[in-house]
Design a protein that fits this description.
This is ABC transporter, permease protein. The protein has 874 residues and is α+β, with helices and mostly antiparallel strands. The chain has 27 helices and 32 strands. The strands form nine sheets. It has a five-stranded antiparallel beta sheet with strand order 24-11-27-31-30. A five-stranded antiparallel beta sheet has the order 13-16-21-18-19, with no helix packed on it. The protein has a five-stranded antiparallel beta sheet with strand order 25-26-32-28-29, with no helix packed on it.
């Protein structure tokens, strides 16, 4: 069978070699030119890293590179958020056939890797669409087939979201899935459908869900149109789709169980109308080069070219579509349009999970539907009906002009005159082509070439506006921001591992490149920004003072206390400036960066009684929760924190008033920062913090604070990072004067900020006791091992490893129950005496997924061998 398959592929390539090359290279060359116009090319000073590509995808792909080179397990990583099911991360961010190509790049060249992967995926989308159009619409001239494939690969949705590289795989498989459905109705084997579905679901389950739903509706339309001839065709479709879906459980099932077990919830329907959408949106977003935003309050990106728009309408006037098809495609289009406006339908397409920015993520399906209809319309295009096509083009000129003159000073302020004029120019060109064809001024092959050229120019023009929209909206980061710190940070990371002598500790950078640096530099960190995260452990971290609010997309290390540093095993800090934390000493320096070691940091575990399970948790009192947890683990009853009220002694560009415990800081000139000088008494042997807690988190977006004794200090986002801004430690009574700098909003409201003092004698006493009972885990891949001796009264090992049902715990090679502390940290019972401990992680559901993959792919292999079209034709 495989020999025949390769023979067929080889024959197809030989027959279609030239047009296939054009289908691949036209979008590739266009994208190279568009990026070059922004100063982005291999080795350029400006990188392709915009938006999440900088903070997430560059780091995630770098970590995957570490996996491929044997430096990290593909199942679990200790490198972010305390620890994470890495296989679940792969299923969303790193699945598919393209990602392993990062192995050909060093992590220092990851911006170039993402550049090449982006180009490759967009070019492959054009290639896949061409294969679809060429087989399903063979009557079309090659030039028109290339025009459709080019405009598909460069549609607005693809380019406006091009920084989200893991989504681009879906656009490769969408036309192949639909091709597989058409092949099924043509009586051919369902191999293309199975392989396309399988690769789609494995590459990205999220977009796989959307395309799976759309393709099912598409199949129903085809089935309704052919039900008399293909009454039983639904059987092979369902068998193929289900076998592909169950085979894809090798990726989907572990991901699903991870989301279910770790606190992910569905969005509740709270409204009926989607935000910011208006009645003219479909017209506005079908104009050339219209980019609003991919942040909040955007409207759908649906542009796929003006010529497809013309012929999509034309298709409904011709017999190339049957009545059943016209009704079916109209209803499918109407469903998609209704989903743009009706929130419950919008949520259905998003898997009942409301997106965080990058809204209407299924809108590319509307674009593809327009493309399919356009292909039907183009098949019916003849010289005799060219005036009719020209009339539709003129009608679009009128509609766009009506919209422009009604709204040019209204709601759609992001549409500039140039975009209206370009839309008119391209529509006039197409109208001229139609008339020239009808009047025999030019032969059809010339019309085909001119149409392909104009469609390519139009798509390029639109792409220019999309990429410049990203530049204005998010900015393409400078390469130096990614590469320059590496030469200093990497040696310090390696030094920290050398100093740890194989025992696993954690490290955090106080001057990070991004919150996900630990993925890239292969060290164990606390912070993380990811859609795939352990929400249970993040919630627990939030209660302990780390900022991981709401859905915990962000879990931040910055601005917590020394108590949490040591409890969570943060033994090392990298910083450009001195780290003024008690017990931290400088141990190395490289360039601008210094490495500091915390002598009181615990490893990943500690021997204790089970008293921590009886702690009374107090919401909104993270210092109280810290105290109770450390006391329970150490068997002590210490008071760690006291507070005092600082005196405001100087104000610059600020008016401060306090009422009912809320301090309002209002800038005199909102374009300049507010500077406030405070004075406070710090008792001897204290680590001091200035507590900054906003009255309303939503009101402080984009507001930063810097707290320092003599200037400098680390600037922190008030909304994103913790509330305890370090003032340093003091071994004698001190009258301290410090500065608070607020930037961003002209007015900031905070809970009247106190100074928090950590009693260092109590802290030292507790952690000396805890270090005597530490469990020095050594980590390799997905396993952690230690040898310990449990003393009388010690019954449990408490770890700061996030609890996950994928963990198995072995004591002297015998499996014991994995327990949890408040669903967030892994704990387990160990009897008295000396024991060997092993923790092993394997994603829950993966074994079942592997079995399903083998069974379903094998079943399909035998099914398609026996498949005969006669069995399903009447």
């Amino acid at each position: 069978m495989m020999q025949k398959l390769f023979h067929n592929v080889k024959h197809y390539l030989q027959q279609n070699k030239i047009p296939l090359l054009f289908a691949f290279f036209i979008p590739l060359i266009v994208m190279v030119g568009l990026y070059a116009s922004l100063g982005i090319y291999p080795g350029s000073s400006r990188s392709i890293l915009a938006s999440d590509a900088f903070s997430q995808f560059s780091n995630f792909h770098a970590s995957f590179n570490n996996v491929l080179k044997g430096d990290q397990s593909p199942f679990y990583t200790f490198n972010a958020g305390l620890g994470l099911n890495y296989y679940a991360l792969i299923s969303y961010y790193l699945g598919g056939l393209f990602t392993p190509l990062v192995v050909f790049f060093n992590n220092s060249h990851m911006p170039d890797a993402l550049y090449f992967l982006t180009l490759l995926k967009i070019a492959c989308a054009g290639l896949a669409c061409f294969v679809f159009v060429r087989e399903v619409f063979p009557k079309l001239r090659t030039t028109l087939q290339l025009g459709l494939s080019t405009t598909y690969s460069l549609m607005s949705f693809t380019l406006a979201q091009s920084e989200l590289i893991m989504w681009l795989d879906a656009f490769v498989y969408l036309p192949l899935v639909i091709l597989g459905i058409h092949r099924l109705f043509a009586g051919k084997k369902p191999t293309v459908l199975f392989v396309s579905y399988l690769l789609l679901f494995i590459s990205n389950y999220y977009f796989g869900f959307m395309i799976g739903l759309f393709s099912f509706f598409y199949f129903l339309i085809c089935y309704a149109n052919h039900w008399k001839e293909h009454k039983k065709i639904i059987i092979p479709y369902l068998i193929t789709a289900l076998l592909a879906g169950f085979a894809a459980m090798i990726m989907i099932l572990p991901m699903f169980l991870d989301l279910r077990n770790n606190g992910e919830t569905l969005t509740q329907i709270a409204k009926w109308k989607t935000d910011a959408t208006g009645i003219w949106d479909l017209i506005a977003k079908n104009m050339v080069g219209v980019y609003d935003t991919t942040k909040y309050n955007s409207i759908p990106f649906i542009y796929i070219g003006l010529l497809p728009l013309i012929f999509a309408v034309f298709a409904f006037f011709k017999k190339t579509l049957t009545i059943v098809q016209k009704v079916g495609f109209f209803l499918l289009g109407a469903l998609l349009v209704a989903s743009f406006y009706i929130e419950p339908l919008n949520l259905v397409w998003h898997g009942f999970h409301s997106p965080y920015m990058f809204l209407f993520r299924y809108s590319f399906l509307f674009s593809f539907l327009i493309l399919v209809l356009a292909a039907y319309g183009l098949e019916a295009w003849t010289k005799e009906n060219s005036f009719q096509v020209a009339g539709i083009s003129i009608a679009w000129i009128f509609i766009f002009s009506l919209f422009w003159f009604i709204h040019k000073n209204g709601t759609y302020v992001y549409i500039q005159p140039i975009q209206y004029y370009l839309t008119m120019i391209f529509l006039c060109f197409y109208t001229l082509f139609f008339i020239c064809y009808q009047r025999k001024i030019l032969p059809f092959h010339w019309i085909g070439f001119l149409t392909l050229f104009t469609m390519t120019v139009e798509a390029t023009t639109n792409g220019y506006f999309m990429l410049n929209g990203i530049l204005d909206d998010w900015n393409y980061a400078s390469r130096s921001l990614y590469t320059e710190p590496r030469k200093d940070i990497l040696p310090l990371v390696e030094k920290s591992k050398e100093l740890s002598h194989g025992v696993k500790y954690r490290l955090e950078d106080l001057d990070p490149i991004s919150v996900n640096d630990s993925f890239n530099f292969n060290y164990s960190g606390v912070g993380m920004f990811s859609s795939i995260r352990n929400r249970n452990s993040s919630s627990l971290m939030n209660q302990l003072g780390f900022r991981a609010r709401g859905t915990a997309l962000n879990a931040r290390y910055e601005n917590n206390t020394l108590l949490m540093d040591s409890l969570l095993g943060v033994r090392y800090n990298i910083s450009k400036s001195p780290v003024t934390k008690f017990g931290f000493k400088e141990v190395d320096k490289k360039g601008d960066y210094r490495l500091f070691e915390n002598q009181y940091a615990l490893p990943l575990g500690v021997k204790t009684s089970n008293a921590y399970q009886d702690i009374k948790w107090v919401d909104n009192d993270n210092l109280g929760d810290q105290k109770n947890l450390v006391n329970a683990l150490s068997g002590q009853n210490n008071i760690y924190y006291t507070s005092s009220r600082p005196k405001l002694v100087e104000e610059e560009n600020s008016i401060v008033r306090t009422e009912k415990g809320i301090a309002t800081f209002k800038a005199i000139d909102s374009s300049k920062p507010q500077n406030l000088i405070y004075e406070v008494f710090i008792p001897a042997w204290s680590q001091a913090y200035f507590s900054i807690f906003p009255e309303n988190f939503g009101a402080v977006s984009g507001t930063s604070a810097t707290v320092s004794k003599v200037g400098g200090g680390h600037k922190s986002d008030i909304k994103m990072t913790g509330q305890y801004y370090n003032l340093g430690y003091f071994d004698k009574n001190t009258k301290l004067r410090f500065r608070l700098t607020l930037e961003g909003k002209g007015e900031v409201k905070l809970v009247s900020p106190p100074v928090i003092n950590l009693n260092l004698k109590a802290y030292e006493k507790a952690f000396k006791t805890l270090k005597e009972n530490e469990v020095p885990f050594k980590v390799k891949g997905r396993k952690a091992e230690a040898t310990i001796t449990m003393e009388k009264g010690q019954t449990n090992v408490f770890t700061t490893i996030p609890f996950d049902k994928g963990w198995s715990v072995y004591v002297d090679d015998k499996k014991v129950e994995a327990q949890s502390f408040r669903d967030g940290f892994l704990t387990f019972s160990v009897p008295e005496g000396k024991h060997k401990i092993e923790l092993s992680f394997f994603p829950q559901g993966l074994k079942v997924g592997i079995v399903l993959f083998v069974l379903c792919t094998t079943a399909f292999f035998f099914y398609q061998r026996k498949y005969r079209k006669e069995r399903y034709l009447s």
